[in-house]
């Protein structure tokens, strides 16, 4: 990645990059020791005390990409890094990373527009490294230290970015198909009956797979449904 910015504290690394996007080059990465207003998906708060890794990547692709695919590449890169440490992570579609069914990482991806003109994408990542208090996560959660892995936040950052950087050009050029097999292999719900929250609807079905576009293929009583964005509940 071209530029690495380290901040002791910031409201949110995503907000920081969105605000400074015009002055910063493509592939700038900012990471912070703590965030005072860390944000999660669906307007949730991302509690960001010392010990966690909080970073965001600024991307300026030449066209407005299908955002979930960039998020999926990031989720896969996090999996690769965790596998390097001997863990067996899985992706909770579309973008949480879990180990033993417990959340270890989340991703918040945001597209930035100037009026209606696409400007950039900010991919924000939180990884639990050495925090001890994970009660607030609202679902079973774990950290690298709790799993017996002693790595620094900087090592984890470098490992994740290395994988992301490798996959990014091919993803931009050829699309999700370049990572579809690797992603599907790590798809936690594959072959399971799940409930998916799709906007204000919930849909129940069998997770048959991930399509070459990165969408979730769910076999329901009404037939095969392709889900573009949502949250797997169970
Ligand atoms: C989620 O699981 O809901 C996504 C969490 C994303 C948190 C990261 S921490 C770094 C970046 N800055 C933020 O404010 N959020 C993301």
Please give a quick description of this structure.
This protein is 24% helix and 35% strand.
Number of strands: 12
Report how far apart the termini are: 35 Å
CA-atom Rg in angstroms: 17 Å
Query: Main β-sheet: number of strands, strand sense, barrel status?
Result: 7 strands, mixed
The CATH homologous superfamily of the largest domain corresponds to Bira Bifunctional Protein, Domain 2
Low-confidence stretches: none
Order of helices and strands: EHEEHEEEEHHEEEEE
- The number of domains is 2
Helix coverage percent of residues? 10-25%
Mean pLDDT: 93
Decide which structural class fits the backbone: alpha+beta
Strand content: 35-45%
CATH topology tier name of the largest domain: BirA Bifunctional Protein, domain 2
Distinct bound molecules: biotin
Any idea what the CATH architecture of the largest domain is? 2-Layer Sandwich
Q: For the record, what CATH class of the largest domain applies?
A: Alpha Beta
How do the strands of the widest beta sheet line up side by side?
1-2-3-7-6-5-4
Write up what this structure looks like.
With 234 residues, this protein is of the alpha+beta class. The protein folds into 2 domains: 3-185, 2-Layer Sandwich (BirA Bifunctional Protein, domain 2); 193-233, SH3 type barrels. The chain has 4 helices and 12 strands. The protein has helices at 13-20, 67-84, 153-174, 177-185; strands at residues 3-10, 28-35, 53-59, 89-92, 96-99, 102-114, 117-127, 193-198, 201-210, 216-220, 223-227, 231-232. The strands form 2 sheets. Strands 1-2-3-7-6-5-4 form a 7-stranded mixed sheet, sandwiched between helices. It has a 5-stranded antiparallel sheet with strand order 11-10-9-8-12. α2 crosses α3. The longest helix has 22 residues, at 153-174. The chain is globular. The mean pLDDT is 93. The structure holds biotin (BTN). The site of biotin (BTN) has 20 residues, from α1, β3, β6 and β7.
């Amino acid at each position: 990645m071209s530029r690495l910015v380290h901040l002791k504290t910031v409201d949110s690394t995503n907000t920081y990059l969105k605000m400074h996007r015009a002055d910063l080059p493509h592939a700038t990465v900012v990471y912070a020791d703590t965030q005072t207003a860390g944000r999660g998906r669906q307007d949730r708060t991302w509690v960001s005390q010392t010990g966690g890794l909080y970073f965001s990547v600024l991307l300026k692709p030449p066209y407005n990409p299908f955002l979930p695919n960039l998020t999926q590449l990031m989720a896969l890169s996090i999996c690769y890094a965790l596998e390097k440490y001997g863990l067996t992570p899985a992706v909770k579609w579309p973008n949480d990373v879990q180990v033993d069914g417990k959340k270890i990482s989340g991703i918040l991806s945001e597209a930035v527009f100037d009026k209606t003109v696409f400007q950039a994408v900010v991919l924000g990542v939180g990884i639990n490294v050495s925090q001890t208090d994970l009660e607030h996560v609202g679902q079973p959660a774990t950290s690298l230290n709790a799993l017996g892995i002693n790595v620094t936040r900087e090592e984890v950052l470098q490992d994740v970015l290395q994988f992301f950087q490798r996959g990014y050009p091919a993803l931009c050029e050829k699309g999700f198909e370049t990572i579809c097999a690797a992603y599907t292999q790590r798809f936690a719900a594959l072959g399971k009956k799940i409930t998916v929250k799709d906007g204000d609807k919930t849909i129940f079905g069998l997770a048959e797979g991930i399509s070459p576009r990165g969408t979730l293929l769910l076999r329901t009583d009404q037939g095969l449904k392709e889900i573009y964005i949502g949250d797997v509940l169970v």
